[in-house]
Design a protein that fits this description.
The chain is α/β, with parallel strands linked by helices. The chain has a single domain, classed as Rossmann fold (3-Layer(aba) Sandwich). The protein is 32% helix and 24% strand. It is built from 11 helices and 12 strands. α3 crosses α4 and α3 runs parallel beside α5. The chain is globular. The two termini are 32 Å apart. It binds iron/sulfur cluster (SF4). Iron/sulfur cluster binds next to loops.
Amino acid sequence: MQRKKLVEVKDLKIHFKIGGSQYVKAADGISFDIYQGETFGLVGESGCGKSTTGRTMIGLYTPTSGEIRYDGKDVHRMPGKERRQLTRKMQMIFQDPYASLNPRMDVAEIIGEGLYLNGLASGSERLKRVYELLGMVGLSKEHANRFPHEFSGGQRQRIGIARALAVDPEFIIADEPISALDVSVQAQVVNLLKNLQKERKLTYLFIAHDLAMVKHVSDRIGVMYLGNMMELADSEQLYKDPKHPYTQALLSAIPLPDPDVEQTRERILLEGDVPSPINPPSGCVFRTRCPVAKPVCAAEKPVWREVAPSHFAACHLYS
Ligand code: SF4
């Protein structure tokens, strides 16, 4: 059966002017699709542009060029009314559940705000819906009158999830939703997101800074580096047969459960820091840290191509 593309990102550039003729290139021509009902993992080191991409998809930033299509329609060129309706369909869960919740509002107000603003429920109907949403995320109605500081990090993230679900969205951008949580709580929040996805037929963009975190969550994964997409494949395929030297290095850093294999396997250590997105390297942006770079890598930007069925990479090793 043909899968439906819910989100299409086409040659997206997000450049921020920072004075004179200098720009920060948060995204520099990335393309990917997200199919309805899947979880697409977007991974990369801090500063690679993944969060800015997510925020642009939901309309918090305007693209410099390129397109973001939702259900076939260009998100940034929609008439106001349609755009407002779309805001309901796309919701976001943030990394820091504490900073993203208003400390002066109680939980009922935080979760009910979207219902109120969108005219979806008022008075006792709204409170009833808030109780339902609290139940959905594993909290109870006794929590409704408490304030964010009275909760643990995991509970606060559950409140953030309930707030996102309040307006009955189709697509959720989860921006590092478990990075700030204790390891013991991370699995609980991931399981909650997975169960909600099944029950409510949600589509996710799951943003994370390491591949270990998205491994069990994502159907497909895109790997970003310095505003560029390096590789994109089915999750299992990416772990089994990474094509791009950057993905290979990221995967080699994930500890393995078998101590014998862990001791003997080879780690690819990346030298140096990620270069500045204001002045990225010429050609392949990864070349200054790539262990197998060739002269052509400095001269020409590698073309994004299909290197195996439904497996894409941008690297001169595959030209
Ligand atoms: Fe390394 Fe060159 Fe491939 Fe870039 S294009 S990842 S520098 S081999």
